[in-house]
Amino acid sequence: MLSFLPASIRGVISLLLLILHTLFWFSLLLPCSLLKLLIPLPALQRFLTRLMIRIAESWMLCNSGWMRLAGRTEWDVQGRERLDQHDWYLVTSNHQSWVDILVLQHNFNRRMPMLKFFLKQELIWVPIIGICWWALDFPFMKRYSKAYLARHPEKAGQDRLATQRACEKFKTTPVAVFNFLEGTRLTPEKHAEQNSPYQHLLRPKSGGIAFVLDAMGEQLRSLVDITIHYPDGAPAFWDLLSGRIRKVVVRCQTRPIPAAFLGQDYDNDPAFRAEFQAWVSSLWEEKDALLAELHRDYPPGNVEHQLDGRS
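Above: the chain sequence. Below: its structure as tokens.
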């Protein structure tokens, strides 16, 4: 533990450790990804996929190591006992900070299959990490605005086709397909702009997970619904690096996915779309009520430990 050091020093040490171990694991991941690309043998590709997942899980374990070294974060986690590393899941969570991703990896690594996020296409150009995401079959999506689709109607439905192509790769190896339903991080400005009906959440977007259920069929039988609460406010990534996060509360609920929702056409079936949106809205109402309860039961700590709400 480095808690005796100033927070700024702890942050620098954590950042250096993150960079160094990322470069190390990347040096192992890259040759595997090139072999997978160049030798199209299904058995070899499946083996390399499993090997690269183990490498990524080891990277996450190293992240957990510098997180423990940097601070004394108290973790209050419930509901992950029922998860199986050898099953397929659809996973979602509320989204407040970039820290959310490391919170999820820290608490669910090797308790369920590796989380695969849907990413904006531009993120493939992020140095080193973008190549890692590509090598690990993270799906990259190109989003089109309504105005763009009005000018180029031939592009309509491309998101769905991209989702289907991505999910084809998920059918041979257990996976946890992850989607932040809010689509962006919660801020007071975004909450007001949306006129969100929820106290602690933005409006959910249903289309992405509907496309996943269409593409994956009966392989996805369970939704893992994760709720994250930071009693001292949503932390910045530097707060995590410098060990300034006092407490994190995580609640995990595993819910069955209604069989009637599998293999449906969200785009072209208005009745199904309305039913699916109602189901997602009911999940979000329950999550908002749970967050209100967590805010009441886990108030902020002492003033010197409170974060400034940056995200």
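The first helix runs from residue 7 to 38.
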